[in-house]
Amino acid sequence: MANQETRELSNLAEVFKALGHPTRLWIAKHLEGRECCVCDFVSGTGEEFSSISQHLNVLKKARVVECEKRGKHVFYRLVYPCIPWLVDCMEARDTFAAAAPAERKRIFDEQKQKLLDHLIRQNV
């Protein structure tokens, strides 16, 4: 039987499961600070409309994105606006691990500034 803390983390685990595909990570990164429609994702990834729709349904079910229909188009936005920053930070991991100590400080400071910029944008 799971304890209370692990039960409370189950919703967050669903978010990470939903992000567990390169196309869905790409979608989340490209929703940073904006809304996009399905056609934007189709043209950006080169994938079929039906494939993008399936990926968006996974993200929607996990409450990573929410959508709003406007006319003939459906626009998507992130529920968790920190996801692009988190992905960016994780992408920097390999560069950080291979860097010399002075370069690591620069990378760390750059990531810290990106987080601060992100937090400031969210409070506007």
Topology:
Blueprint: H1 4-8, H2 10-18, H3 22-30, E1 36-37, H4 38-45, H5 49-61, E2 65-70, E3 73-78, H6 83-98, H7 101-122
Question: What would you note in describing this structure?
Answer:
With 124 residues, this protein is mainly α. It folds into 2 domains: 75 residues, Arc Repressor Mutant, subunit A; 40 residues. It has 7 helices and 3 strands. The chain has a 3-stranded antiparallel beta sheet. A hairpin with a 2-residue loop joins β2 and β3. The protein starts with a helix and ends with a helix.
Number of separate structural domains? 2
The global form is globular
| Main sheet specs | 3 strands, antiparallel
Our estimate of the beta-strand percent is 5-15%
Please give the radius of gyration in angstroms.
17 Å
Helical fraction equals: 55-70%
**Gap from first CA to last CA:** 42 Å
How are the strands of the biggest sheet laid out side by side? 1-3-2
Low-confidence stretches: none
Q: What's the CATH class of the largest domain, please?
A: Mainly Alpha
Q: Give the overall pLDDT as a whole number.
A: 88
Number of helices: 7
CATH architecture of the largest domain: Orthogonal Bundle
Number of strands: 3
Q: What fold name goes in the CATH topology slot of the largest domain?
A: Arc Repressor Mutant, subunit A
Helices and strands, in order, run as HHHEHHEEHH
Brief characterization of the structure:
The chain is mainly α. It has helices spanning 4-8, 10-18, 22-30, 38-45, 49-61, 83-98, 101-122, and strands spanning 36-37, 65-70, 73-78.
Keywords:
124 residues, Arc Repressor Mutant, subunit A, three-stranded antiparallel beta sheet, 2 domains, mainly alpha
